[in-house]
Write a structure and sequence with these properties.
- There is one protein chain.
- The chain folds into two domains: 80 residues, no CATH class; 40 residues.
- It has a five-stranded antiparallel sheet.
- The chain has 120 residues and is α+β, with helices and mostly antiparallel strands.
- The protein is globular, with a radius of gyration of 16 Å.
- The protein has four helices and five strands.
- Strand 4 and strand 5 form a beta hairpin.
- Helices cover 43% and strands 20% of the residues.
- The longest helix has 22 residues.
Length: 120
């Protein structure tokens, strides 16, 4: 599952390192997992964030499925924006803004190709 929130971009999976009631939340940025951890537990314990330098998602945090589902529900209840790209990224974070917009462009192009439209 890919999720873009005000706290960051997360790729969440269940893998062989997880118990049945856990998920692995992966991120490209350590700070995203720290923000997530603060939302879940009120603090960030850097020791709980696994770093794998050559992995596709360099940073990982194992949490319970219950914590993850509650976090997603809270995010949904807090939606107060009409435009995702403008609503979830701080204007000062230009690199992240460009990256998210690039994802939007790629998916828009794909949508247009599916519909037989020409990407503009």
């Amino acid at each position: 599952m890919w999720v873009f929130t005000r706290d960051g971009f997360f790729s969440t999976v269940w893998d062989q390192y997880c118990a049945a009631d856990e998920v692995m939340v992966r991120a490209r940025c350590r700070e995203d997992l720290c923000r997530l951890s603060k939302k879940l537990r009120g603090f960030c314990d850097p020791e709980k964030i696994l770093e794998i330098p050559y992995a596709d998602y360099r940073f990982r945090l194992k949490i319970s499925r219950h914590e993850w589902s509650e976090y997603l529900a809270r995010c949904a209840l807090e939606i107060d924006y009409a435009n995702v790209k403008q609503g979830i990224v701080d204007e000062a974070d230009r690199q992240r803004k460009r990256a998210y917009h690039g994802v939007w462009q790629t998916l828009y192009r794909w949508q247009s190709q599916q519909e037989g439209d020409v990407f503009k």
